[in-house]
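Form 7-S
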Amino acid sequence: MAGESESRRSHPPPGRDRAEGEKVEGPVVMAEPDDFKLIREIVAAGGSKYTSGNVDRRRYQRLVDLGWLNAFSTNISDVHYQVTERGRAAASRS
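Output:
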């Protein structure tokens, strides 16, 4: 009988509450004036930024969260950021 009650669930089992491949979204990140300034600087410098060592990467991570940069870890302490098309569009806004 336990199997019978499980098959009549009104909700999917944990972990299956969304379609296959559907992206799980976190909190919405809203762009701030400093974000636009930073993306313009990165675009003006060629569209990429390389950070190495023990540096605060929170401002770059905000741009990643906005979809403006892609981040690529080159090793344990270095990250290379590349501007996306969405980032280029944001940089061209006034």
